[in-house]
Amino acid sequence: xxxxxxxxxxxxxxxxxxxxxxxxxxxxxxxxxxxxxxxxxxxxxxxxxxxxxxxxxxxxxxxxxxxxxxxxxxxxxxxxxxxxxxxxxxxxxxxxxxxxxxxxxxxxxxxxxxxxxxxxxxxxxxxxxxxxxxxxxxxxxxxxxxxxxxxxxxxxxxxxxxxxxxxxxxxxxxxxxxxxxxxxxxxxxxxxxxxxxxxxxxxxxxxxxxxxxxxxxxxxxxxxxxxxxxxxxxxxxxxxxxxxxxxxxxxxxxxxxxxxxxxxxxxxxxxxxxxxxxxxxxxxxxxxxxxxxxxxxxxxxxxxxxxxxxxxxxxxxxxxxxxxxxxxxxxxxxxxxxxxxxxxxxxxxxxxxxxxx
Length: 357
Ligand SMILES: *Cc1c(COP(=O)(O)O)cnc(C)c1O
Known about the structure:
With 357 residues, the chain is of the alpha/beta class. It has two domains: 11-235, TIM Barrel; 244-355, Lyase, Ornithine Decarboxylase, Chain A, domain 1 (Beta Barrel), CATH 2.40.37.10. It is built from ten helices and 18 strands. The chain has helices spanning 11-27, 43-51, 62-70, 88-94, 103-115, 140-146, 172-187, 203-207, 222-226, 338-346; strands at 6-10, 31-35, 56-59, 76-79, 97-100, 120-126, 153-160, 194-198, 217-220, 228-229, 234-235, 244-257, 280-286, 298-300, 306-310, 315-318, 331-336, 351-355. Strands 1, 12, 13, 14, 15, 16, 17 and 18 form an eight-stranded mixed beta sheet that branches. The chain has an eight-stranded parallel β-barrel with strand order 2-3-4-5-6-7-8-9, surrounded by six helices. It binds pyridoxal-5'-phosphate. Pyridoxal-5'-phosphate (PLP) binds at residues 35, 37, 60, 80, 161, 164, 198-200, 219-223, 230. Pyridoxal-5'-phosphate is lined by residues 35, 37, 60, 80, 161, 164, 198-200, 219-223, 230.
């Protein structure tokens, strides 16, 4: 396999970010679930989460949870996307707990778990406003009651999610709704051991001590991985942002006019590109593209380098104002945002290297 593109993953940094988040949450008696869906359920990364004190790993894909299970890591596992009815048997086998919203799925899970002579734990996901998955609050008691006759499952609590689909901000109000719902469920005889929220955006409720009492679990992915709160587009200063570095090799350096020549149609991805005329510029072509990474989410680490765009396999950068010399064969370094990291982790073309200090 080619040496580049290369994604360097600093496991010590990931463990440290985990540790800091676990510490903040512990002050409020809140447990942390480390979410690995952005990193393909990578076992080394999950182990770094574990080193930082995280005891539950959550992922949206059964395949990813299987990877973590196979690695033998001593953590419990959570499936954070509602199970597909077609996969309930593996969900019951691989996940200790899953987030679900549909009575039919719960029934199928219950049967699958009973056939395996086990009891599968579920958290019922409620929609507190983000309008992705979730039972509407008024429907929750009815769904809960319908689980009473399901032998293979145990409802361990409820969960909510903000800031993912609708971009809803975490507030004391939408979390009070979650905490109140848990109370209501207790009144009709359900234990509600776990009251879970997520994702990273909800850390701000812990930072400013406004998380309502009764919520005892937070699911965090991006905060650990990138040290950022996506919903506020804000760096979390008390965390580290440099756990991931992407390196790509330069395959061409030439001074060229900054405008394309000829009639302009659409580019390879159906967009009509727009460029500014800045005269002749020194441009680098990098051996990396959209098959490897979301090129819009790359930020060059060296000052004075600007990414102009990319196609499937090449990225063009303006290096005229680069503070250090750049030549063919040199390697440029980039930090990545969440979509860029997601694709780099998923791409078979990106070599991964672990750094442990
Ligand atoms: C993705 C996801 C999370 C984690 O979100 P981050 O913003 O990456 O922390 C938590 N819970 C659910 C249900 C998710 O889908």
